[in-house]
Write a sequence for this structure.
């Protein structure tokens, strides 16, 4: 049994050394002595690997949902509906099926995709789906475009503009 492990160890060492490639002697004068410059040169030549990407000196720019006026305005506008998904980093909000008291057999669902953080009319892709169920619980789902989509978009953009103005006023004071 000991022989088996000895042979396995030797084979492992040979394979590991062989996988490193052929030894190539290098001239130290070709590489800068500063480690950061060597890393930069290796990355430029395609020999390096940067884990998690980016330069460590640039820092990270975090944007939080509370600082995005469109996101906040959308959540405030559809706050009466239960949410299924609200993913800020993915830029999507999906509500659950909602039924008002007027017609219990008709439910609606809203999906909002954020195409940009700027407050403008084409920043949102808002869709409203209607589900109608008959007495035998057979349901049909269809997307409708119309006045409600336009009204919701207008309300969201109006609130987002107000939020942006509030932030600007706070910064000015």
């Amino acid at each position: 049994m000991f022989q088996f492990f000895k042979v396995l160890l030797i084979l492992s060492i040979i394979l590991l050394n062989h996988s490193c490639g052929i030894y190539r002697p290098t001239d130290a004068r070709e590489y800068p002595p500063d480690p950061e410059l060597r890393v930069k040169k290796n990355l430029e030549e395609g020999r390096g690997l940067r884990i998690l990407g980016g330069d460590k000196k640039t820092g990270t720019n975090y944007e939080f949902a509370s600082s995005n006026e469109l996101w906040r305005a959308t959540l405030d506008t559809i706050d009466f509906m239960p949410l299924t998904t609200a993913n800020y980093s993915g830029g999507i909000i999906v509500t659950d099926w909602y039924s008002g008291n007027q017609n219990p057999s008709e439910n609606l669902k809203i999906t909002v995709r954020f195409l940009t953080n700027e407050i403008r009319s084409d920043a949102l892709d808002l869709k409203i789906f209607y589900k109608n169920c008959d007495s035998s619980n057979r349901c049909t789902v269809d997307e409708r475009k119309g006045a409600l989509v336009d009204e919701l978009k207008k309300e969201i953009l109006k609130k987002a503009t107000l939020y942006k103005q509030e932030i600007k006023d706070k910064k000015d004071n």
